[in-house]
Write a sequence for this structure.
């Protein structure tokens, strides 16, 4: 806006700044623009095929020091969870936008085609070694905000249950040593771990990842 030949607004204020102040303001703007987080790609449902990496689905993914959930991915829990060698679990469900599951009082929920249910198995860390994990049932401190704190937990596997046109299909993905991504393990896998109890005692055991048919 101009009035009686006088500049108003940011342009007028910038004109009165010293070169040093202007440079500092420009640097601050660059820093802030570099810190802006780019949103992750939307969840990608593959109607067919078996992608080699979990990250291709964009359901759960490594984001800094956390295993994050994408937009529209909802965590849930069961009333009667099963015991799995002390492994903790993060369960999520995603359905295509605009769809819903149908309830029946005598059958299981009827999920729409395109649904992705995930179950990530992990253990709390029990020391510097990645293979040292805690033997505990307590999951109350695992979930930080919208994801898992990877400074505190060690990821083992993520299983995807997919509602495709011909029915449900399961794909198991095993997390790499760096905890950056998980790779498809159709034939299953075995992970050697050291299970550490609260009193400091430990025992070696092998976590078995089932194959896709199991």
């Amino acid at each position: 806006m101009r009035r009686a030949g006088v500049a108003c607004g940011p342009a007028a204020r910038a004109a009165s700044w010293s070169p040093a102040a202007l440079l500092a303001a420009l640097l601050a703007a660059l820093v802030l623009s570099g810190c802006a987080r780019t949103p992750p790609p939307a969840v990608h449902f593959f109607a067919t095929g078996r992608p080699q990496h979990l990250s291709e689905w964009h359901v759960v993914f490594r984001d800094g020091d956390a295993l994050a959930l994408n937009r529209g991915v909802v965590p849930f829990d069961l009333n009667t969870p099963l015991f799995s060698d002390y492994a903790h679990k993060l369960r999520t469900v995603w359905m295509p936008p605009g769809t819903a599951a149908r309830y029946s009082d005598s059958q299981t929920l009827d999920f729409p085609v395109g649904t992705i249910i995930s179950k990530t198995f992990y253990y709390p860390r029990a020391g510097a070694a990645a293979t040292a994990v805690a033997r505990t049932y307590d999951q109350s401190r695992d979930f930080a905000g919208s994801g898992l704190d990877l400074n505190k937990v060690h990821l083992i596997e993520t299983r995807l249950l997919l509602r495709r046109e011909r029915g449900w299909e399961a794909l198991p993905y095993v997390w790499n040593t760096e905890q950056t991504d998980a790779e498809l393990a159709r034939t299953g896998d075995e992970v050697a771990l050291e299970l550490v109890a609260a009193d400091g005692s430990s025992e070696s055991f092998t976590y078995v990842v089932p194959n896709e048919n199991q």
About this structure: Residues 52 and 120 are 17 Å apart (CA to CA). The first strand starts at residue 2 and ends at 3. Helices lie at 10-15, 19-35. Confidence is low (pLDDT under 50) at residues 1-14.
